[in-house]
Amino acid sequence: MQQGLGDLDELYQEVLLDHYRNPRNTERLDDPTSEVDAINPFCGDEIHMQIGLYGDTVASISVTGQGCSISQAAGSLLTEIVDGRTTTEARELRELFREMMTGEEVSDEVADRLEDSLALQGVRRFPVRIKCALLSWSALIDALDKVAPTKP
Description:
Layout: H1 2-21, E1 34-39, E2 46-54, E3 57-66, H2 69-82, H3 87-101, H4 108-114, H5 127-147
Antiparallel strand pairs: 1-2, 2-3
């Protein structure tokens, strides 16, 4: 049984390294609907995010930046999950991801919705790195709030 968990950890590490070395959706958007920068002041990780909305749908998204492999891989993974989703779905995914990172049990349904970002759940064993994984998700909410703030 333990061997299976090791194999899963290895698979997750491969997913994270792939997204770090070959980040997805890094091309600048010609006419973004919203654009934000996010910085983790504790470690210096930086994320630059652009989103293009078509109605209430994230029609395009770009994430670039610099920092640790966790922050950069998380940004790349986020773009694959959020692209094509409504802004409401994007906000829901952010909340599910945050819950996963803070130790909530991940149901099969949530695991399906988080797709490959599930690979980041091992980061929660290192509390100081959780902010690295959450940085791009915070940028997403900031970018969405610039266009259509959530109601109190």
